[in-house]
TrEMBL record:
This is Threonylcarbamoyl-AMP synthase. GO terms for cellular component: cytoplasm. The keyword Acetylation does not apply. It comes from the Bacteria. The keyword tRNA processing applies. Belongs to the SUA5 family. Keywords: ATP-binding, Cytoplasm, Nucleotide-binding, Nucleotidyltransferase, Transferase, tRNA processing. It comes from Rhizobium rhizoryzae. Residues 13-199 form the YrdC-like domain. InterPro entries: DHBP_synth_RibB-like_a/b_dom, Sua5-like_dom, Sua5/YwlC_C, Sua5_C, T(6)A37_SUA5, TC-AMP_synthase_SUA5. ATP binds at residues 58, 62, 143, 151, 195, 232.
Length: 326
């Protein structure tokens, strides 16, 4: 049976009531956040968390971010150091996830943390935060897509991928940020960037007054979501930093940059004709889906600047282009 889709804009109260009701039943639902659409379920209910993994086909060693209504709720479940609290107060609600020690008294189930003694927490903007407050418990909510595939930025994307596996999709329109949250872990004075995302690392560095540490090479262990080498992948193979287009490829470029041979491409898309990295981030997953839907075997992607939100865009593209298990 296809999922029921409820518009938050036209049926706000019904969306809230139905969302709380399905969550109370232990069912996962799809809901909009400012980053991407999430597959949300009660983080304290092992059957509900298991349903997330089963619906996505996600490996259970890959932890889930737990979404909170506000900082006070987050403090009920995680221990904050001064730097992490400073970041939370500056950027929440918003696309920042903090990996923190899990409190012994927290009822978040070990399935949601993949058995780790830490938990990734964030406070989302808008309807998602309102729904969590109404439900009264944290929601584990990875992106609402089949594991490893392109993240959804609209209710339509969710319906196309998981519509026959869900009972409810809450439609809030296009996700304005378009890439997942930035993930930060603080260890003493060290501030580590585990995943670039919707808040540029430069913003965090400006607040703290010193650089954040980047991961060099493949992560030795999975500490947070989005750290798998191959992730966010379309069906077609992805070729990065393309300076030319080959016959039959779909081409995705940035800022109208000329690409040799683009006239031979099967289709041409532009992340942001004006060269706006925020617009490019918001369009990234949608254009990857559009390019993939043309039926090509390869997608060529032109260079994207690596500063600001470009760091998150290039991270997602690198993982989309990574070798896949066969």
């Amino acid at each position: 049976m296809a999922a029921t889709i409820i518009s938050i804009r036209s049926e706000h109260e019904r969306a809230l009531e139905e969302g709380v009701a399905r969550l109370a039943e232990g069912l996962p639902i799809a809901l909009p956040t400012e980053t991407v659409y999430g597959l949300a379920a009660d983080a304290t209910n092992p059957k509900a968390v298991t349903a997330i993994y089963e619906t996505k086909g996600r490996p259970q060693f890959n932890p889930l971010i737990c979404h909170m209504a506000d900082l006070a709720m987050a403090k009920d479940h995680a221990t904050f150091d001064p730097i992490s609290e400073k970041l939370a107060r500056a950027f929440w609600p918003g696309p920042l996830t903090l990996v923190l020690p899990l409190r012994d008294i927290s009822p978040i189930h070990p399935l949601a943390t993949a058995g780790l003694d830490s938990v990734g927490v964030r406070v989302p903007k808008g309807f998602a935060g309102e729904l969590i407050a109404a439900f009264g418990k944290p929601l584990a909510a990875p992106s609402a897509n089949t594991s490893g595939k392109i993240s959804p930025t609209s209710a339509e994307h969710v319906a196309e991928d998981l519509g026959d596996k869900l009972s409810l999709i809450l439609d809030g329109g296009l996700a304005p940020v378009g890439v997942e949250s930035t993930i930060i872990r603080v260890e003493g004075e060290r501030v580590r960037l585990l995943r670039p995302g919707g808040i540029a690392a430069e913003e965090i560095e400006a607040l703290l007054g010193h650089p954040v540490e980047r991961q060099e090479g493949p992560a030795p262990t999975i500490e947070a979501p989005g750290m798998l080498a191959s992730h966010y992948a379309p069906g077609a193979f992805v070729r990065l930093n393309a300076v030319d287009a080959q016959a039959g490829e779909a081409l995705i470029r940035f800022a109208g940059q000329p690409v040799a041979g683009s006239e031979k491409a099967h289709a041409v898309f532009d992340l942001s004709p004006e060269g706006d990295l925020a617009e490019a981030a918001a369009n990234l997953f949608g254009l990857l889906k559009q390019a993939d839907a043309t039926g090509v075997d390869k997608i060529a992607v032109g260079p994207v600047p690596d500063h600001g939100l470009g760091e998150a865009i290039n991270d997602r593209l690198m993982r989309a282009a990574a070798p896949r298990d066969t």
